[in-house]
């Protein structure tokens, strides 16, 4: 199990990457035993498959013009599923916008996600997800919020850890650096997860930074930091479990660079063929997290994966139902534009709303 | 002459200035290889090289701050904020330094930089992608703020902005990026910053608008014409400086004025314009100066946007009220 000694061995300064299984899912160290039970491993596989199926479905709904945009998670699911396995009910999840599996684990519904990407703020309510923030569009801005939450947890003597996500591109923003510095100085229980999927829209990581890895960024702020194979669900799980424990025991923040690859487009409005090669995509396809986990499961004969199609069919049905529910969501009322701006609606807002209602009633020309 | 949409016209203006002036560089997020998320800078890196048209790391504050450094050291940077809402991380540099450097150094250092910002709603976008922040910039002493409403104006105004000795915020109404096609001269030309354009001559009421609202106002004017009403339309083009002369002349003639902005109301451009109308044409007014603006709310996500975005019908409704006042 990943521990403080392993952490020292995997110094970002030496650019070492922590991984447990190879591209085919075979353990790199024959003596290694997974910290997860067989049942948990099978569940991880199912969750990963679910996330991937949900993504394909979402992309196809968007293509049909039933959602305005969608940022696919394809290829990054192991990070999300592993987070889902270690995050506790009282822990906070501070998302970026590309970690679907972790949101689902927190209790977000696909219906809500679809609703959000159909263009309704109701999709950010996350009614059954305790301590889960909405998607953060202004890149890296959410990280400082995570640090504030961490401070509140310490101050209120609550045993809860904050999991905060950001992308490789986000590490260039000032907010990323300010968050790391505050987190270390305040010794807050925050686990920063940097999903390095090699791109920020079209901009490759080599244009983003001259550092040989992103875990190094934490070193400068005296935060225990580690580079992990983000497509290896076992490695991600061990490191996240370690990080949670470290933060939970009052030792402060941890930074994890999860190295991965964005298999899909940035969002449905992006065309990656403009800025990357088929060869690069093919090389990363060998490291696909689902393929690797399946390889492990098949080699150990944990589960008969030949039933995958039936599972996918079952998930599709479930996801379709969620989408239907999102489509049946009540029409967006005018009230919703105004009523969440303040606790009490100021008279000026009421006046503006009344003027608009007056227009609706009398359009066609004042009589 | 070549038929262009606004994206092509802006691209053409950048190309023209990159060709003519070696001190011009173009950078920002995804502007190089990709040619910008709206394709505004498409092909420019290929033509002018990666030292002059390039992708920067993802950090708006640094994009703006480095532009200041380049500008005071003799270059003419044209930077892009990928979307309106992402100009906010650059506020510190724009408000604290870019707008003030000339004054602070008593003219020793100047900032001839251009900050391009695709802005506004109506494109079915995510949160923070549909903002209209022109009043923040217009309120900031030391900046010029320009908003074109046609491809022709976009090219001429952008060239003027790049040639301007002071920092210019160049806001591009992304909703009409591809909606209007127009003949645009292939050669260089320049539209002076601070000069409004009378789009439509009329006698009974003046509409003052800019950006994507011009097209909506034009549609409303067609509706008004069917009622026999004659409405004048002024495209402000420059949010700061404001063309008082054109406003004065028009409102003194028509006696009625309606300001239309997509941005929210309070402390917005419409408030400033109405003050100017009062200062310049008070005694000619036959009705209280009126404004039709976005609500004082966050612009809703796409399913709620229909309430917020101003339609020609709503503009017509206000015209009707004012003319019958
Ligand atoms: C402050 C800010 N600037 C620009 C954008 C536009 N934008 C959205 S996603 C993105 C790239 C993000 O890259 P990364 O952090 O690597 O996350 P990824 O999309 O790869 O998951 C950009 C530039 C934004 N959302 N916020
Ligand atoms: Mg990325």
Q: Your description of this structure?
A:
- The complex is a heterodimer of chains A (367) and B (325).
- With 367 residues, chain A is of the alpha/beta class.
- Chain A has 15 helices and 8 strands.
- Chain A folds into 2 domains: 328 residues, Thiamin diphosphate (ThDP)-binding fold, Pyr/PP domains (Rossmann fold, 3-Layer(aba) Sandwich), CATH 3.40.50; 35 residues.
- In chain A, the strands form 2 sheets. A 6-stranded parallel beta sheet of chain A has the order 1-7-8-4-3-2, sandwiched between helices.
- The radius of gyration of chain A is 22 Å and the shape is globular.
- The mean pLDDT of chain A is 97.
- With 325 residues, chain B is α/β, with parallel strands linked by helices.
- Chain B has 2 domains: 183 residues, 3-Layer(aba) Sandwich (Rossmann fold), CATH 3.40.50; 128 residues, Rossmann fold, CATH 3.40.50.920.
- The termini of chain B are far apart.
- The model of chain B has no long low-confidence stretch (mean pLDDT 98).
- The chains are: A alpha/beta (367), B alpha/beta (325).
- Chains A and B meet through helix 14 and helix 15 of A and helix 11 and helix 12 of B.
- Thiamine diphosphate sits at the interface of chains A and B.
- Magnesium ion binds next to strand 5 of chain A.
List the keywords.
heterodimer; A: 367 residues; alpha/beta; Rossmann fold; 2 domains; six-stranded parallel beta sheet; two-stranded antiparallel sheet; 15 helices; 46% helix; 9% strand; B: 325 residues; seven-stranded mixed beta sheet; five-stranded mixed beta sheet; globular; binds thiamine diphosphate; binds magnesium ion
Average pLDDT taken over every residue of chain A: 97
CATH fold type of the largest domain in chain A: Rossmann fold
Q: Look at the structure and give the CATH class of the largest domain in chain B.
A: Alpha Beta
Strand order of the largest sheet of chain A: 1-7-8-4-3-2
Instruction: Name the helix and strand elements of chain B from N-terminus to C-terminus, one letter apiece.
Output: EHEHEHEHHEHEHEEEEHEEHEHEHH
How does CATH name the architecture of the largest domain in chain B?
3-Layer(aba) Sandwich
The CATH superfamily of the largest domain in chain A appears as Thiamin diphosphate (ThDP)-binding fold, Pyr/PP domains
Query: What Rg of chain B, in angstroms, do the CA atoms define?
Result: 19 Å
Number of strands of chain B: 14
> For this entry, what is the oligomeric state of its chains?
heterodimer
């Amino acid at each position: 199990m990943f521990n403080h000694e392993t952490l020292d061995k995997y110094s970002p300064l030496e650019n070492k990457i922590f991984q447990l299984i190879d591209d085919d899912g075979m353990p790199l160290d024959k003596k290694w035993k997974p910290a997860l039970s067989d049942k948990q491993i099978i569940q991880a596989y199912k969750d990963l498959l679910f996330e991937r199926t949900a993504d394909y479905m979402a992309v196809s709904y968007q293509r049909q013009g039933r959602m305005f945009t969608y940022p696919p998670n394809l290829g990054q699911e192991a990070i999300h599923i592993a987070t889902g396995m270690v995050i506790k009910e009282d822990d906070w999840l501070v998302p970026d916008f590309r970690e679907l599996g972790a949101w689902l684990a927190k209790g977000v519904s696909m219906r809500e996600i679809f609703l959000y990407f159909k263009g309704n703020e109701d999709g950010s309510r996350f009614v059954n997800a305790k301590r889960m923030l909405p998607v953060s569009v202004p890149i890296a801005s959410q990280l400082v919020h995570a640090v504030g939450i961490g401070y509140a947890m310490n101050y209120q003597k609550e045993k809860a850890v904050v999991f905060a996500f950001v992308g490789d591109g986000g590490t260039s923003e000032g907010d990323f650096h300010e968050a790391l510095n505050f987190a270390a100085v305040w010794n807050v229980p925050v686990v920063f997860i940097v999903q390095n999927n090699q791109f920020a829209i079209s901009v490759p990581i080599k244009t983003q930074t001259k550092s040989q890895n992103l875990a190094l960024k934490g070193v400068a702020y005296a935060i225990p930091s580690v580079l992990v194979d983000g497509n290896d669900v076992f490695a991600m799980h061990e490191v996240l479990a370690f990080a949670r424990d470290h933060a939970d025991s009052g030792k402060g923040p941890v930074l994890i660079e999860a190295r991965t690859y964005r298999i899909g487009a940035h969002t449905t409005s992006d065309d990656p063929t403009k800025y990357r090669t088929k060869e690069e995509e093919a090389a990363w396809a060998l490291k696909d997290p689902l393929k690797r986990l399946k390889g492990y499961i098949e080699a150990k004969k944990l589960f008969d994966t030949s039933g995958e199609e039936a599972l996918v069919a079952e998930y599709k049905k479930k996801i379709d139902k969620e989408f239907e529910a999102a489509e049946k969501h009540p029409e967006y009322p005018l009230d919703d534009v105004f009523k969440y701006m303040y606790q009490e609606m100021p008279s000026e807002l009421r006046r503006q709303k009344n003027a608009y209602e007056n227009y609706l009633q009398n359009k066609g020309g004042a009589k | 002459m070549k038929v262009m949409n606004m994206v092509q016209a802006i691209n053409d203006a950048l190309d023209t200035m990159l060709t003519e002036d070696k001190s011009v560089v173009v950078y920002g997020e995804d502007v190089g290889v990709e040619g910008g998320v709206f394709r505004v800078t498409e092909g420019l890196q290929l033509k002018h090289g990666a030292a002059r048209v390039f992708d920067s790391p993802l950090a708006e504050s640094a994009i703006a701050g480095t532009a200041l450094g380049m500008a005071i050291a003799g270059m003419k940077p044209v930077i892009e904020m990928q979307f309106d809402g992402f100009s906010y991380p650059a506020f510190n540099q724009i408000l604290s330094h870019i707008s003030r450097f000339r004054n602070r150094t008593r003219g020793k250092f100047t900032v001839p930089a251009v900050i391009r910002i695709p802005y506004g709603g109506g494109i079915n976008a995510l949160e923070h992608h549909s903002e209209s922040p022109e009043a923040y910039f217009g309120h900031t002493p030391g900046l010029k703020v320009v908003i074109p409403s046609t491809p022709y104006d976009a090219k001429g105004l952008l060239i003027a902005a790049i040639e301007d000795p002071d920092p210019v915020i160049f806001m591009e109404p992304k909703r009409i990026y591809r909606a209007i096609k127009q003949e645009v001269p292939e050669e260089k030309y320049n539209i002076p910053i601070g000069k409004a354009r009378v789009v439509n001559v009329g006698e009974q009421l003046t509409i003052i608008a800019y950006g994507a609202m011009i097209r909506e106002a034009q549609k409303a004017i067609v509706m008004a014409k069917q009622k026999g009403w004659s409405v004048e339309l002024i495209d402000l083009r420059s949010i700061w400086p404001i063309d008082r002369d054109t406003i004065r002349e028009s409102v003194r003639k028509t006696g009625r004025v309606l300001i239309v902005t997509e941005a929210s109301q309070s402390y917005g451009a419409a408030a400033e314009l109405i003050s100017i109308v009062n200062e310049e044409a008070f005694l000619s007014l036959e009705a209280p100066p009126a404004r039709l603006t976005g609500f004082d709310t966050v612009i809703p996500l796409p399913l709620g946007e229909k309430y917020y975005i101003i339609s020609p019908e709503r503009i017509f409704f206000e015209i009707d009220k004012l003319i019958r006042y």
